[in-house]
Design goal:
The chain has 202 residues and is of the alpha+beta class. It has six helices and six strands, in the order βαβββααααββα. Strand 2 and strand 3 form a beta hairpin. The chain is globular and about 60 Å long. The N and C termini lie far apart (48 Å).
């Protein structure tokens, strides 16, 4: 897949973020491998296997935009962060923009795919390694699964707090329960998650 990290009105040192977009590319399109061809100002119209990323800073908000081109069409998404975040220490800026680029890519990609990958936006370490490590330490399969879901829940809380704060309260009320060989995670509006899970697990 051709990856273009373009500049707009803010030099975010795009070469630093190649690894982040490559990891999300592998989550969304595991059969692909990254390419960085020179763009030379040409349009991407007609591309069927490419992704373009831009970052534009305004006084209040900075918008990170992703456009994904596949045979079925073009999907795009934008993630906003407060422009004040870019005035923080360099490593904090790096983590903020890295996450924004990955989430914009993820949202644009899943819009084209028509659904989410099995492990959502999780990148990097393969999910199977997390429960395997827990089981090697003595956990049961259910306990290992619960640990994996707990980490996934915390990751989603962080995502939503930064980019979809109106939805974050639903995750705060989530209930994770282990019963025998079963593990259930329930997210619902209000405080009904416990009631829903108990109706299945008792």
């Amino acid at each position: 897949m051709k990856l273009y990290l373009d500049l707009d009105n803010y030099d975010y040192q795009p070469e630093r973020y190649k690894y982040a977009v490559e990891q999300m590319m592998l989550t969304l399109f595991p059969e692909e491998r990254p390419e960085y061809p020179p763009r030379e100002g040409r349009t991407l119209k007609g591309e069927t296997n490419a992704a373009r990323f831009t970052l534009r800073r305004s006084p209040v908000w900075t918008t990170v935009r992703a456009q994904v081109y596949r045979p079925q069409g073009m999907g795009q998404a934008a993630v906003r962060v407060g422009s004040g975040e870019l005035d923080r220490p360099p490593e904090q800026v790096y983590h903020t923009l890295q996450h924004a680029l990955k989430m914009a890519f993820y949202q644009a990609g899943t819009a084209l795919l028509g659904g989410e990958p099995p492990w959502g936006a999780l990148t990097g370490v393969r999910p199977v390694k997390l429960p395997t490590r827990a089981m090697l330490a003595g956990a049961t399969e259910a306990q290992a699964c619960r640990e994996l879901l707990a980490q996934r829940l915390e990751s989603r809380k962080a995502d939503f707090a930064n980019y979809m704060p109106d939805e974050a309260t639903r995750l705060e009320n989530a209930v994770l329960k282990c019963s025998g060989c079963y593990v259930a995670l329930c997210v619902s509006s209000g405080d009904t998650a416990s009631e829903i899970i108990n109706s299945y697990l008792g």
